[in-house]
Amino acid sequence: MQFMLLFSRQGKLRLQKWYVPLSDKERKKISRDLVQTILARKPKMCSFLEWRDLKIVYKRYASLYFCCAVEDQDNELITLEIIHRYVELLDKYFGSVCELDIIFNFEKAYFILDEFLLGGEAQETSKKNVLKAIEQADLLQELWEPPQGWLSELSLPAST
Amino acid sequence: MSDVVEKTLSALPSLLSLDSQAGAGKLSPSSKLGNLIKGITELTSKHEEETLIKKELESIKEQVASPNTTMRQMKEIMVRAIYCEMLGYQASFSYIHAIKLAQQGSVLEKRVGYLAVSLFLNETDEFLLLLVNTVLKDLQSTNLIEVCMALTVVSQMFPKDMIPAILPVVEEKLTHPKEIIRRKAVLALYKFYLIAPNQVQHIHSKFRKALCDKDPGVMTASLHIYLQLIKENPESYKDLTGSMVTILRQVVGGKLPLDFNYHSVPAPWLQIQLLRILAYLGKEDQGTSEMMYDVLEESLRRAEMNHNITYAILFECVKTIYTVHPKSQLLEKAAECIGNFVLSPKINLKYLGLKALTYVVQQDANLALPHQMTIIECLDHSDVIIKRETLELLFRITNAQNVTVIVEKMLEFLRLTYNVWFIQTMNSVFSLGGDVMQPDIPNNFLRLLAEGVDNVEDRQLRLFAVDSYVSLLQGETAKLPQRFLQVISWVLGEYSYLREEESDPGSVMRLLARLLDQRHTSTETRSWVLGAMTKLCSSPVYTAIYWQNLHCYSTERHWLYKTKCLSSLFKLYLTTLIFEVDLIISCLSWLWCCFIPQVDSSLSFLDGYVSDALAAGAAPYKSPHQRQEDLVQEKALSLEPYGLSLPVSLSSCSITDRRSPTLLSMSSGLSGNSTELSHQEGSTTLKLEGVKRVWGKDGYLAQQQSAGETPTPLVELPSPLLSPQSPPSQKPSSGLEPDQEKRQLASSLFVGLGSHNSVCLVRLPSTVWLFIKNCQSANQSNVVKSLFKPFYINSCQSALHNLLDSTTVASEGGAATTTTPQQTSQRTLDHTTSNGNPHVEGTEQRVEAGGPLSLIRGNGMVAVVPPRDLPLTSHLPAELSGLARSEFTPLCSDQDSSLALSACRVYKEDALVLLVFISNNNDSALHQMVLQLTCKELEVYIFQTGLNNKVPLFFSEIPVGRSRNQDRNTRVSSNRDLEKPRIFCESFRNFCSPPLTVSTGDYGKMWLSFSHDLKQNLRLVTTEHQEPLTATLDALKGKLHLHVVDIIGSEGIVACRLLQGPGQGQPCLLHCRVHADSLAVWLRSPVPELPDSLLYHCQKALTET
Lengths: 160, 1105
Description:
The complex is a heterodimer.
Chain A: E1 3-8, E2 13-18, H1 24-39, E3 48-51, E4 54-61, E5 64-70, H2 76-94, H3 99-104, H4 106-116, E6 117-118, E7 121-122, H5 127-144, H6 146-154
Antiparallel strand pairs in A: 1-2, 1-5, 3-4, 4-5, 6-7
Helix pairs in contact in A: 4-5, 5-6
Chain B: H1 2-20, H2 32-42, H3 46-65, H4 71-86, H5 95-104, H6 107-120, H7 132-139, H8 144-156, H9 163-173, H10 179-195, H11 204-211, H12 216-232, H13 241-252, E1 261-262, E2 265-266, H14 268-282, H15 286-302, H16 308-323, H17 328-342, H18 347-360, H19 372-379, H20 384-396, H21 403-417, H22 419-433, H23 440-450, H24 456-474, H25 482-495, H26 507-517, H27 523-536, H28 540-553, H29 559-575, H30 581-595, H31 607-615, H32 624-635, H33 640-643, H34 668-682, E3 695-696, E4 699-700, H35 702-706, H36 719-722, H37 732-735, H38 738-749, H39 756-759, H40 766-777, H41 790-795, H42 797-813, E5 826-832, E6 856-857, E7 861-862, H43 878-881, E8 884-885, E9 889-893, E10 899-907, E11 911-920, E12 928-935, E13 939-942, E14 950-959, E15 968-974, H44 1000-1009, E16 1012-1019, H45 1028-1040, E17 1043-1048, E18 1051-1057, E19 1067-1075, E20 1078-1085, H46 1089-1104
Parallel strand pairs in B: 5-12
Antiparallel strand pairs in B: 1-2, 3-4, 6-7, 8-10, 9-10, 10-11, 11-14, 12-15, 13-14, 16-20, 17-18, 18-19, 19-20
Helix pairs in contact in B: 3-4, 4-5, 4-6, 5-6, 6-8, 7-8, 7-9, 8-10, 9-10, 10-12, 11-12, 12-14, 13-14, 13-15, 14-15, 14-16, 15-16, 15-17, 16-17, 16-18, 17-18, 18-20, 19-20, 19-38, 20-21, 21-22, 21-23, 22-24, 23-25, 24-25, 25-27, 26-27, 26-28, 27-28, 27-29, 29-30, 34-42, 45-46
């Protein structure tokens, strides 16, 4: 996978993860172009796009668009399932996730993504294992800094 | 302690607000990030956002620089900085602090620090070097979380040069007891392998260990590396095939922990990874492939649940099966699977189905056949992506028969999607492809441009085209191919009005006028240009320029051109300008003069020749009738059998004398009439009695046929094409059921694939296929509904010129003629003179081409419609043109008069020559013609002057005293330049064409090198309007096909070459100088006899003149 973008229906970027080295300018251009292209597409249209030499796989969940760029020989459907799995993870972690969760806790969304995909490849596909890893890291925070950790745990619903 | 209290207090509000904010309960609105986000969402304009973020960044900058900022505050600041960066605002000042945070913070802070680093920085950033030590320290930490974080950041980015510094530590982690660490270490090594493969070469054995790891997660991670390695070098890893197959079998068999199930499918990611690896391993390797057949089959079988993830596996499976060494049974199963995709209502699956087809048709194009209808539907899909994939698929199944239809579809697609790109590409296609391009490419292009509703997009496309052409014309136009110029003219004529806001409205007109003036512009192109100008002249600004040109060009000699002028005039007269009556009258008078043929009916120009001939002892001219009587009297020979064929009922012929090659296609002014006429004519085109009727005007007729209806002639089919103004019911687009339409399209797209009757869904009798194939060559339009548009008649010059051609004839001669639009690419012409033995009798020689002369076309349609008059005089071979000859007698022609056969006799001193002309009255060039000539007693020579128009093809010669028993069966397969013009003639058996073409310089060299010379004085030819020297040389050139190299003052140099005989190919040079009243000629050649012989012929030729 080359990069992953999350953006809202209004075209606001919510999350961006680049797995290939690109300059800031290129990144901006790519995300602007893609957001425009994808938002212009109608809901019944196909989730795959050929864009430059990449293949774009996108899916809309509520008001959020999840968009991945993969290489040409990659499997589109499995990429679609990667997106879905990520949404499942977020959902499990935040407890029926909504856009606001991701806006306000985007760093958590990044942590989850990093446990799931590493360097652009699926690292751990077992939902349980990913969440376990996140929990452990969160738990460790708690141990190291009880007050803050305790509070931040409170500010999140119990992640099971 | 106070610190803790303070933090607790600061966090309190968020705790308190928890209940009141259910939806956004997890955020802390009082935090600075919360405030920032809230502030931004409340803003209305981009400008306000900019100001706010600027302010925010200022404050962040201040805080990070402050020495009092704690790591905890720093963490919070970093999150805000990340947010600002995500919104697209640069916060580069914070990068260094992110690294610092990762370095110095506690675990929680470190985590954010690493995250910020991975988001802010690039692999190439120099800042990363500052991170190396931190990473190293964390890797060696006893805290698992810290190790994980370090490995995570390393797997995402690490400076290439610093890999050796941490490699040993990472390697060590491969044996770590925790599987999460091992997994991340493997992925870190994968990253290293990607950015610096050499650095990890020595640890390949450790990858194998990871592959055998007891934890499926670690094993899965190692497959990323193996996929890469095997992709690059499959040969070295063939030994792994067994292991991969085993792993896949276990996964498919559900041996993995349930954790790895995804929607109750066992480890789909792993399966797909393994399938991809197997594809690389088994590619072009039968042995390896055989190992995996079983497991592939099992994968196919197991993936039966109707869920995206199973389709993902299926898709990968199909791909693998078609990549490895083929096993027919598996291929069949895989092909069946594709059906599930293609027929699925889910658009994503449909897309992948098309993609899979694209992949598999490369091996077997017939696999596309069962899905024809789906493919046709997808071709018109509203989603561009689906369309494009369909075109990709069509591209893969393109063959010689369906290429035009497919290319057309592609062009259509391009127009819809990439306007500017499309025009530019087509411009270069036209400039480069030029006149060698198939004529339907420009036609399609113009059609695409003209098609469609008049919406903004179409207008933009047209305007862009106009603009790009104007700028092209402003540059150098000499190099632009004629076809392109025609396209340009048409577009400018139609759409220049889109440039109305342009300051100088006359500019287009002037550019066109300039085009008219240029020498390299062909007559045909000029007509297009003039047509464009006519269209433009509705605006008064243009009119002045237009008149100037029209007047100027109405004097042009080319009659085609004049017709064009005339039509322009009429249009002008009818539409806009009544006030310029004077000009119109003057133009008309000009044209009138030009149209009046100037005929010297007394043939006074022949007087000299006749008297010479009589003086030389020739018999006085007798009319054919007289001659026949004489013959009967003298020899009492019955000519009954032969009399029939020559004068075949002229009265029944409806063909007018002239068929212009390239007329009217561009003349919008006349096209209204012309189409009507051609429509009438179209109804008498083909006789198809006995031909199974499959296509009618409403398309495919399978059902009616089965009902036993009387078939209507196939003739009807082309007629909608001819008649844009015909009632709409005749148009297939409205008359056809959409389904049938698609079937037609399908049949044209999939033509040439498979055995038609067994595989294809659209079952068509073979005759139909034949028909379509024929159409492909000339008018593929018959099959494609979109071509039946009125516009086509106006613009598609070449595809329809054969139709329009007939109109010209009609408008000129007022008689209806017959033309078929359909043109078979190959015609068979049997000219049999088996029982018509030509007679050669003494001096009074007569030849009657007797016996059945028939022209057989296609499937046995025989028609003998002799053409009425043949302007073939100009095609007489030069050396025969001066001789006495009979009239041109039409022998026969095929029904639509596109091929005609005619003959004449030429009387020579020592022989009688029977010239048989095959004329192609169509405009389209005959690309191939197989001519079989069976002639027992005649000597046949082929003479060819070009195949594209009226073509005297051959003549036979009956030399005096030649044995009659020669059996000759000449089969000439003539491609255009297969046969060079070749003349052989008894009277100057030794000489002449092809002329020896040499430059003056070469001439000089040759002159010096030749030894045999001869000098002689010759008679000068005198004419009124030419120099004596030029006239004489021209006469020689005309008679003997000599090549006039140069004429300087009173001297001229001429070259020729011996064509036949022992000295074949030997040159002979002539140097001529005007001396008093005669021409001093000095001949030189390497062959002794040549100058003498040539001189004799020169003398003879000049005496005759």
